[in-house]
Design goal:
The complex is a heterodimer.
Chain A: H1 2-11, H2 14-17, H3 28-34, H4 40-78
Chain B: E1 6-9, H1 15-23, E2 27-28, E3 36-39, H2 45-51, H3 54-57, E4 63-65, H4 67-74, H5 91-101, H6 105-108, H7 113-117
Parallel strand pairs in B: 1-2, 1-3, 3-4
Helix pairs in contact in B: 1-4
The chains are: A mainly alpha, B alpha/beta.
Bound molecules: zinc ion.
C-alpha cells in the first residue's frame, strides 16, 4: 500500500515529474493545463498565471475596440 | 543535455548561467525563436515584455528561472531535474503564490553561489 501511495504521489503532477529533455517554454504551460492531477504548487501557479493572462487578454481586446471604433463609425456613415 | 535547443536570456541572468547553457550544447537566440526562456528577475523590462506578449497569453511562453541551469549542471541525473519547479511567474503574482506555497526553489538555497552572481 505504501508503494502505491508513493506511486500516486509520483504520478500526481506532470509538472513535477518532467525534466527538460522534451519540455520547454513552448509546451510547458499546455502540459500543466492538460494534467488532471496538479499538485498544490502547480495549481496555485497555474491559477495565478491564468488570472493574469485573462486580465491581459481583456485589456488587449479593450485597446482593439478603441482603435476600431472610429473606423467602424466612418464606414457606417459612408454607406 | 540542451544540444540543438535555443535559449533566450533576460539581461538579469548572469554570464555564468549563460555559460552553463552553452556548455550543455544550447545556443542563444532571440525571444521568438527560443525553445527556452530564462530570467532571474521577473520585474526586469526584458522579462516583462515576455509576460505581455501574445505567446504568453496563449500559453506558449513559460519563463523559467535560470537557477535551473545551475541545478542541472550539478545534477548526476540531468534529465531528472524537474523543469516545472523553476517556473518564474510575473512579479505581481509572486507575493500571493509565496503566501500559499512558501518560498520558490531558488529562494530556498541561501548558500548557492549562483544567487550572489545575479546582482548586476
Ligand atoms: Zn507539480
Amino acid at each position: 500500500p505504501t508503494d502505491n501511495c508513493s506511486k500516486m504521489l509520483e504520478n500526481r503532477c506532470s509538472g513535477c515529474k518532467a525534466g527538460g529533455k522534451s519540455l520547454n517554454s513552448r509546451n510547458f504551460s499546455k502540459l500543466l493545463h492538460s494534467c488532471p492531477y496538479q499538485c498544490d504548487r502547480h495549481k496555485v501557479i497555474v491559477e495565478a498565471e491564468d488570472r493574469y493572462k485573462s486580465e491581459l487578454r481583456k485589456s488587449l481586446i479593450c485597446n482593439q475596440k478603441i482603435l476600431l471604433t472610429p473606423q467602424r463609425r466612418r464606414l457606417g456613415s459612408d454607406s | 543535455m540542451f544540444r540543438g535547443r535555443r535559449g533566450w536570456f533576460c539581461r538579469s541572468v548572469s554570464a555564468d548561467l549563460r555559460a552553463l547553457w552553452v556548455a550543455e550544447g544550447g545556443t542563444i537566440s532571440g525571444p521568438h525563436a527560443a525553445d527556452f526562456l530564462f530570467s532571474c528577475d521577473a520585474s526586469h523590462p526584458d522579462t516583462l515584455r515576455i509576460y505581455q506578449s501574445l505567446d504568453y497569453i496563449e500559453d506558449k511562453a513559460t519563463v523559467f528561472h535560470a537557477y535551473y541551469l545551475s541545478v542541472v549542471a550539478h545534477a548526476d541525473m540531468k534529465t531528472s531535474v524537474p523543469l516545472g519547479h523553476f517556473i518564474l511567474p510575473p512579479a505581481c503574482l509572486q507575493k500571493e503564490i509565496r503566501r500559499k506555497i512558501g518560498k520558490f526553489i531558488w529562494e530556498q538555497d541561501q548558500h548557492s553561489s549562483v544567487e550572489k552572481h545575479n546582482e548586476e
